[in-house]
């Protein structure tokens, strides 16, 4: 596993410090240009396309010269991820539900615009302005419920995990459509023989009842969207009720 390199922090936070006055010939490129080019390639062809060599070729420079701006490919990917996180521009003065709805809508839009995010682990994200802006936004959203400060992180993390997981799932399906040429529904249709020759209705009575009721008739994408909305609604309702109970307990 690659070790943490402190070189990434000045790059992630490059907009937070005053730019140094250039001495001599101005640089031909910038970190912003390199990252934007890598994102464009990944959007069009997948994350693998955003290699150092390919980005250099797109910018008509030698590959080695690219390392002047970004020290390595893993650091380039970190910069790409944080850039698209930051681009969500999560800002709202609305109530709890309005803020969570905004977060969900923009997170799904982000993954749809950049499906290669499904190829990147979010377990150990780049600690940049994009990631921290996401956390601040979610914590502030939960804070509108009046919970004590030490109780904010758990519900905020639960919401972010549910939303990101669903958006990641949708993006993974989009990547599979791109690489295989098959939608998820077409993939299941190719396995029709399973239901005819191998599926045991007696061993799966609940699934069979649901099938006979027509609940599996809708497409996989539509079912996934319904399941997400259903789960998110229950999650938010539970958080709101818990916050209400805690407020009442403090008053009494």
What this model shows, in words?
The chain is mainly α and 252 residues long. The protein has two domains: 76 residues, Homeodomain-like (Arc Repressor Mutant, subunit A), CATH 1.10.10; 146 residues, Orthogonal Bundle (Tetracycline Repressor, domain 2). The protein is built from twelve helices and no strands. The radius of gyration is 23 Å and the shape is flat. The termini are far apart. The mean pLDDT is 91.
Shape: flat
Report low-confidence residues grouped into runs of 5 or more: none
CATH class membership of the largest domain = Mainly Alpha
CATH topology of the largest domain: Tetracycline Repressor, domain 2
Number of strands: 0
Quote the average pLDDT.
Answer: 91
| Integer tally of domains | 2
Strand count, sense and closure of the main sheet? Answer: none
- Strand proportion: under 5%
Helix content: 55-70%
| Class inferred from helices and paired strands | mainly alpha
Radius of gyration: 23 Å
Euclidean distance between termini CA atoms? 52 Å
Question: Helices and strands in order, then pairings?
Answer:
Blueprint: H1 8-12, H2 31-45, H3 52-58, H4 63-66, H5 73-86, H6 96-113, H7 129-143, H8 153-180, H9 184-189, H10 192-198, H11 205-212, H12 220-251
The gist of it:
It is built from twelve helices and no strands. It is mostly helical and 252 residues long. The relative contact order is 0.09.
Core attributes:
252 residues; mainly alpha; 0% strand
